């Protein structure tokens, strides 16, 4: 069975989002708690997984009409790209290029909580982990935007063919 480019683009967006989300959960499992902006990046990945993998597989098996392939692929790719865009914003906040949301870039005061000794506050403006100077948000931005572009070109080739 050969896949049309738009179905392949949807599946690629879904697989990449699944891999990135599993990676984020892996870091969380090993003690790197996500901040608020990290969670923001996960929501579009979830949408890309549902649309890309779920919709792409339904399209590939013929359970959905072929006319919807382009729409599903476009939405999955846009969701992947949106996570990357949020990653760019988050990385910029970590590098202090622009201010982030006050809820997770302040000093960590929680109103009504006098004793916060057992309360973990994860700031959005401090990267917990870096490799080659790039944080998790930066890697999410690079991979999400790069693969969104690749999936988009796959889908566009399907229209040209």
Structural account:
With 161 residues, this protein is an all-alpha fold. It has one domain: Bromodomain-like (Up-down Bundle). Helix content is 65%, strand content 2%. The protein is built from five helices and two strands; from the N terminus they run ααααββα. A two-stranded antiparallel sheet has the order 1-2. A hairpin with a 2-residue loop joins strand 1 and strand 2. The two termini are 17 Å apart. The mean pLDDT is 84.
Question: Cα distance, first to last residue?
Answer: 17 Å
Radius of gyration: 18 Å
Question: Which topology does CATH recognise?
Answer: Bromodomain-like
Total helix count?
5
Extract low-pLDDT stretches: none
Please list the strands of the largest sheet in the order they lie side by side.
1-2
Number of domains: 1
Per CATH, the class reads Mainly Alpha
Key traits:
161 residues; mainly alpha; Bromodomain-like; 5 helices; 2% strand; elongated
Summarize the structure.
By secondary structure, the protein is mainly alpha-helical. The protein has helices spanning 5-29, 36-60, 69-94, 102-105, 136-160; strands spanning 130-131, 134-135.
